[in-house]
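Try it yourself: sequence plus calcium ion, in.
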Amino acid sequence: MSKILVIEDEQVIRELLCDNLEFDGFTSVAAASLFAAEEGLVREQPDMLLLDLNLPDGNGAEWLKKKRDAGMSLPVIICTIRDREIDIIKALDAGADDYVTKPFRIRELIARIRAVLRRAGNDSEAPALPQIGRLSIDFAARTASCNDRQTSLTTTEWQMLELLWKNKNQVLSREQIIDHIWGINDLEDSRAVDVHIGRLRKKIEAGNEPETLLTVRGFGYKLKI
Ligand code: CA
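Structure, out:
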């Protein structure tokens, strides 16, 4: 499983990045300054860095240039504010492998991380795709496969699966599922939830008895991982 060090001083962005990385099967560690990043590099031995440019104790690109000169070969993706082309050029010149612009498009960022890790030859260390029942799930690419054969999921099934995965091993009520997917809470819809869950279950479960997508009687559903 690849470990990614997120170097970002804005707490909201840092947490957003870490949450999404974890969601996609990466391990994330965070640093709010370059000083903390130096410590994190040693302590955490990350596989790659996400690096903000404007940090309280210096410029990310200048720091990266120094690290590259000192022999650091870890893949680095720079996170920068859109339209600061000069920043982007400077960052790439400093030795960044790629960059993304804020505000982030998270799916794009995850795809870029995977690509950079692949190019860096860490493919075997790229996170194993989450295994849910008999399916290997790639949330970024929205593909699901079973024994290397693609399984197709509907948009609603994807939304449900993502919600369940984010809350794995916890019980979600039908109301929570309805609220998340349809944004309304209508009793009529609780039947629809059961229908979609039933279809999803057929794709996920290997046997007749559910072992992964469980019904918790009187409460709702739980994805058991
Ligand atoms: Ca910043």
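One thing you can check immediately is this: The mean pLDDT is 87.
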